[in-house]
Amino acid sequence: GQLGERIHRFLHHRSICQAQPDRSPPLSPPEFARLLTSLAPILRRFPRRLERSAGAAEHGRFAVGVRLLAGERERAAITGMVHQPVVAFLAATTGIMAVLLLGDDGGPVMAPGITLQEFIGYNLLVVSFILGLRAIAPVFRRGAG
Predict the structure, then answer these.
(1) Would you state the pLDDT for residue 1?
(2) How buried is 80 (Cβ within 10 angstroms: 0-12 exposed, 13-18 middle, 19+ buried)?
(3) Which residues contact 4 (CB under 8 A, 6 or more apart)?
């Protein structure tokens, strides 16, 4: 209508519809006028929304909902940071328990020459070794990449 014609005249006068430096194809004046008229309702509501947001901020009612660890990448990063120290702690704990069990002379005999405490101690050493490797492996994997 009449608004479209005014925009068309304005654009021809100001030559806004020329090709942009980023080499995007220029809009024809009628296309640009249609674009602006389609944005008119949004642009009319914008000052009211801006005023409402400013008023809410002024009165302390302005809130933004941000979810911590919303993405899968963030959760995976936190899980990885927690996982490695926990595995290292378990490796150290089982290693200490194995040494304590192997250092004790008592306990029931399971087979000739081996006690129950030695059997459990050697098994805990194996578990400690495997957990230690699991704690150290990511360090070398990150360093290689």
Answers:
(1) 56
(2) exposed
(3) 30, 33, 34, 37
